[in-house]
Amino acid sequence: LNIAVLISGSGTNLQTIIDGCKNNEINGKIKIVISNNKEAYGLTRAKNNNIKAVYEKDETKIIELLKKENIDLIVLAGYLKIVTKNFVNEFKNKIINIHPSLIPSFCGKGYYGEIVHQKVLEYGVKITGATVHFVDEGADTGPVIIQKSVIVKDNDTLETLKKRVLHVEHEILKEAVKLFCDKKLKLKGRRVFINE
Ligand code: GRF
């Protein structure tokens, strides 16, 4: 399948998908990487792998770019922008997002990146984790595809917790993209079933 990855930052989640396609774990090809941040290191990762890398902030132009590439799956990987209803409707059930918490905790408007881990530590929960979900018109509200938990340690700092969660993000994002490309994800209402 033709994959597009939307980023805003370092692109470590993007790198995971690049590697997964290269070693054939993922039955797909990344056709384009689009960032709303010109400085995103993820654009360099794309270029280093001969993948079309585009800086574009205008969502209408992004939709055009995606249509031109006949994209089957859009992955929001550290994309720090809420996509519009129009965008969601253009690519119904073809957009997935990785979020660094166990949705519906610590998510929604304003909960992204390090802020999530800060809130987790402040609140004092003992278990956090990461979630891959389909994107609907809400913020982090779409049907959950995969979740994996991460224990919060007493001596955790923002950095140590962030690092441990990021590792789990990579793991479940690769798995979710693999399952999507293998057409093993079935959506029934809000529940996602995996057809092994
Ligand atoms: C990270 O904070 C991650 O939790 C979230 O997006 C941020 C950047 O990830 N998903 P990446 O390294 O750009 O993939």
From TrEMBL:
A Pfam family hit: Formyl_trans_N
- The protein's name: Phosphoribosylglycinamide formyltransferase
> Which residues of the sequence carry a binding annotation for N(1)-(5-phospho-beta-D-ribosyl)glycinamide?
G11, T12, N13
NCBIfam families documented for this protein: PurN
Q: What is its EC number?
A: 2.1.2.2
List, for all copies, the residue spans of the domain called Formyl transferase N-terminal.
Answer: 2-177
Provide the family line.
Belongs to the GART family.
Which Gene Ontology terms describe the biological processes this protein takes part in? 'de novo' IMP biosynthetic process
